[in-house]
Amino acid sequence: MNSNNLTRRGFFGASALAGLMGMAACGSPGGSSSGASGSTKLTMFHWAGAQATVPEKVGDAFAEANNVDVAYIEGTNADTFPKLVSSVQINKNSPLLNLGFFNGQSFAQGNASDLWEPVPASVTNIDAVNSKYQIADRRGAFMVMDAMGLIYSKKAFKTPPTSWMDLFDSAYRGKVTTWDAPAFSVNALPVIAKLNGGSESDLRPGIDIFSKAAKAGQFHGFIASIDALRQQLNSGEVVIAPGFQGVAQPWIDAGDDIGFVAPKEGLMAFPEGFQLVAGSSEAQLEESAKLLNELFAPENVAEYCNLNGLIPLVEGAELKAELADKETFQLAAVESAIQIDWATLVENIEDATTAWNKDVKANI
175 is in which domain, residue-wise? Predict the structure, then answer.
């Protein structure tokens, strides 16, 4: 898959991108910037909500100590990654951002489009990443692991759901949601395909199940943000959805009547981390690498995980007791989870999106 495929699907128009890029220089829409007016200006993409706290804290301290301006873009992979791709298609030497936090699907998509720069050897903190999640060519580094399972309304379930296939139980007709294509890394399609005889290279078994369910009215619709998912679960519009422990845990901590469960077939492993973006200037790459090293310091990884209910992949980053004692936060639980071949999934995104739009989306 190449970046032109993303453009053909019309993710982001040039005029809209120009406006966003102009605002990103000042911190992005809804974002911020920090630091003295240094000669080097960086833009870092991070996820929203509590996942913004540590990147901005570390970025602000780095900016002050190194006379660098750090601006922030806050959002999701589904929204920001295609905008990044479009930006380098317009001008390969002016990417939307220089350092970004991405998931496994975006890692693989970026690799396919030569979007990432190798992390230099000077970034020594990534050497402490769990060996199973080291990236051989150093084009990025995984920092944390989320676990994908089922998020559900405790008001609707006297006992937690037990299986991925509960998403298709007619008892919950009209009250199930997921993400639209091509965000297959988060909408459970690869898992459902694998559990029903398919694979990352053959998603048809999963698409057939989603298609049958869509025709039967199983889905409330698609969500476009985690805030929408939270609202729909709390209102009762939706009672069950594929989702992440790291998304659900802060809601649970806040007192929402929401639960997270590991399906009997296994969790889905979901690594997340940072990338250096090709097309950045030499000075931007140098400073981004230094900032990356700070982000991977064990104490920063630990704080990130404890705030967001994630599993650290960096040696020396310790979870707080109330998380460390839970079975679904053990690294062993994720290492035995359903693993996704992200590169193969990415190779099949275009065909899968066409099939999804025709057989699933058209029936919602």
Answer: 147-268+343-363
